[in-house]
Structure formats: C-alpha cells, structure tokens
Amino acid sequence: MSTLLDNLDLFTTGFKNTVILFVVSGLFALILGTIVGAMRVSPVPALRAFGTLYVNVIRNTPLTLVLFFFALGYPKLGLPEIDFMTAATIGLSLYTATYVAEVLRSGINTVPVGQAEAARAIGLPFTQTLTLVILPQAFRSVLPPLFSVLIALLKNTTVAAGFSVAEAGAIRANLSERGYPAMEGLLWVALFFVILVLILAQLQRYFEKKWKVAR
Amino acid sequence: MSSVLYDAPGRKARTRHLVLGVVGTLVILAILGFIVWRFAETGQFSAAKWKIFTFPLVQRTLLNAVGATLSAFAVAAVGSLVLGIVLAIGRLSDRVWVSRPFHWFTELFRAIPVLILMMMIYYGLPPLFGVNWPPFVAVVVALILYNGSVLAEVFRAGIEALPKGQREAGFAIGMRKSQVMQSILLPQAVRSMLPVIISQLVVTLKDTALGFIVTYNEILFQAKYFGSQAQYGSPIVPAAIVAGVLYVGMCLILSGLAKFAESRLRRSPRVSGGRKGTAMVAAQDAAAQI
C-alpha cells in the first residue's frame, strides 16, 4: 500500500497519460477505420486496392515496430519535430484503425441483403446507402468486437512506455529508480488496468442494451 | 465486380468511378511520394546507411534474431493452445466451484496488458525468489498466459455454438462427459474456429516483438542495436525497414495459412453453420485481440 501512496504522483500522471492516449487515438482510429472500411467496400477498384494494402501491411506489423518507427525513425526524417506523446498517438491510431476497418467490414456483411437492396430500390447512391442505411446498422451489430478492439487499444497504450512516453507502463522504471519493489508497483498497475477494462465492458453492456435492434 | 451496396455501374457511373479512382490514386501516391521523398532527402537510401547490412556477421546475427523470435513464438503458441483448451474445459464444467475460478482466471489475464505481465515476470518475480531467469522465460510465459486466456474464450464460443444435438447424441450412445468433450465437441469446435485460432497465433507472433522492451534478444532488439551504430551513420530507418520486412513476411506466411484453412473449411458443409455461423466467425476473427 505504501508503494502506491508514496508514489501517487507517478501513478496519477501515468494513468492520466494512458487515458489521454486511449481517448485521442481511439477517436482517430474510429474515424480513420470507418474511412478505410468504406474504401474497402466502395465501387472504385483503386480505393479498394489501397484499403486492402494498408490493412494487410499494418495488420501484419507488430505495434512495437510501428511505435519504434515513429519514436526513433521519424526524428531522422527532418520533418517538424513532434513529442513522444504525439508520436505514440499517431502510431496507435494508424495501427488500431486497421482493426476497426476489418470489424466494420465484417459488420457490413452481417446487415441483411434486403436493407441494401431496399436502399438502392428507392434510388440512394452508394454513399447514402452506406452512411444512412448500412453503417448505422453495422455499427450496432459489431458493438462487441468493436469494444474488444478498444479494450485492446487501452492495453496497447502500455507499449508506448517502451518509447519514453510517461504513461502507466513506465511506472515500473520510475519506481525502481526511487527504490521501491517492482512487483508491488506492477500489481497496482495491473489492478488499475483491470478496473479500466471493467469500466469499458460495462460501457459496452450499456450501449448494447441502448442500441439493441429487433430483427 | 458488383456488390449489394451498389448497382452494376452504367456509362456515367463508370466515368465517375474512373475519375474518383484517378483522384484517389493521385492523393495516396502523393502521400507515399512525400514519405519516399523525405527518406531520400535525408539519405535513408544512401549506400552508406545500408552498408552495415551487407556484412555476413550482421546478417548471421539477424538470422539468429529471427530464430529467437520464432522459438519464442513456437513455445508460446503450443503452450497457449494447451492452456486455452484446459481453461475452456474448466470453464465449461458443470460444477460451479470448478468453473468459477477458471472464469476469473481467464477474465483476469485477458484484462492485464501483456507488457505488464512480461515486466512482472522479468523485473518483479526474480527479487522475490532470489533467482534470475532469462528474458525468454518472461516473454514466453506472459504470452502463454494472455493468449491462452483469449484462446479459451474462442474454444468456449466454438463449443457453445455447436448444435445441442451433438452433445445429446453422445450421451445417448452411452459416452461419458469427458468422452463427449474429447471425441465430439472439441474436434468440431477447433475446426469451426480454426481461422480465429490462427489469427490469434499471428497476434502471438507479433507480440513477441514486445520482448524488445524486456531486453529479449529478438529482431527488433537487434535492429535497434544495428540502427544506432554511429560509425555507419545511425541507420535506424533502414533497420526499421529490415525488421518490418521480416515481420510482415513471417506474419503473411501465417495469415496465408489462415486463409488456406478457411478455404478448406468452406468446402466442407459439415462444420459451417450457414451464413450466420460464418459471419460470426468473421466478426470474431476481425476482433481477434490485438
């Protein structure tokens, strides 16, 4: 207990950064993922191909390598400097967006064919069919897998700790500098993650109930 | 190519798609071109920065690093499959005092980030027991605990999705519970969930890269080492490209296996649960814990 109370500053900054990373990159990942998912089902072959390429390459790259590139490689490219936090946000968003895109694409497939046919029958073009009819239903039916992607993103934020971002995963290194046992600190970190995941799971249950569709 | 989302394009639509396609391609090529231009401008493609990767010793070290990644993956994959089956069976037990602890175990290890688990095993445990173990142990054990718990849920979902008649038929011909599980339920569940299981294994392969942070001597660790050699111009970007090619290559081979397994399953009408069943597997597959 004293490990937690004596180092409350470390824990609060750590988890504050974790939550910021999670919320910001989650938001960007959802937006980018929806765009890429729409590209992958669009009638334009070139856009389909680029969407597939992006998803296949990034999904087969470890997140550690993506962050490695943004933290260590990016500064060598002579572009405007960004701090580690921004770099981690970009890396996490680009990585998670591929998973969001895949989940949405599989969700689009679960929407009954009649819905799209009805939309086309009343003359809606592709963009309206997608945004007004298909996507709202797809979002509801993929809520559980979408939340597992978000939970995974929350846990993945710890990887950023390996690249000098002062978030929850970095608490251990700072604790051992101050001479506190590593195990106790890590157990606290793990406990807080379990709590955060439980909150997300609760949120999922709430939205599932709220957006339940009768089919 | 036509889809339910849009009609087969007519003359006007085809022109519009062509225009959109050209514009989209130009925008994306511009982005890619900008990145390549930045790479070239800062000399990332210069021979001097790549020279270090031409030495046989460096290549051999990288090959050893690939071996280290693959050996960690192999042990973790086998271990997590076994743990997954054990946890799934435990959780499906009829006795509450057996299934409850198994449930907690899976939920707990699914909620803790793998990296935190690795740190616990590598930095946290040794001082408590007064022993030291190599980072390999930390990487493998953490991956087994996490992926085993995820796979347990996959197996359980597979078993519960089977028609009830399968279990009942087993009991009707006088099999015991363990026999029903072993020879009727598990084989079918594993077959129908094979795509999800393999994509979880791809995740395991990718997660071995986390070993980099607990100083396990794998691909990324070596890449950083070579990338920071100042006498060769700190070729960190070339090193990242090399590591990326190695990882993407290995994962594509595994993903290819997943596609192959899926196409084999499509051919067999016995296991596919119709459109809904495959849609469920696809959704789970897409959401495979990252």
From TrEMBL, chain A:
An example Gene Ontology molecular-function term: transmembrane transporter activity
SUPFAM superfamilies in the cross-refs: MetI-like
Residue span, ABC transmembrane type-1 domain: 15-204
Compartment(s): Cell membrane
Keyword hit for Membrane: yes
Keywords per UniProt: Amino-acid transport, Cell membrane, Membrane, Transmembrane, Transmembrane helix, Transport
Pfam family, one: BPD_transp_1
The family this protein is said to belong to: Belongs to the binding-protein-dependent transport system permease family. HisMQ subfamily.
Protein name: Amino acid ABC transporter permease
Originating organism: Sinomonas atrocyanea
Organismal lineage: Bacteria, Bacillati, Actinomycetota, Actinomycetes, Micrococcales
From TrEMBL, chain B:
GO BP: any one term: amino acid transport
A GO term for molecular function: transmembrane transporter activity
Superkingdom, taxonomy of origin: Bacteria
Topology versus the membrane: Multi-pass membrane protein
SUPFAM superfamilies: MetI-like
The keyword Cell membrane is assigned to this record: yes
UniProt entry tagged with the keyword Transport: yes
NCBIfam families in alphabetical order: HEQRo_perm_3TM
Localization: Cell membrane
Species this protein is from: Sinomonas atrocyanea
Name of the protein: Amino acid ABC transporter permease
Pfam families (alphabetical): BPD_transp_1
CDD domains: TM_PBP2
GO cellular component, one term: ATP-binding cassette (ABC) transporter complex
Domain ABC transmembrane type-1: 66-258
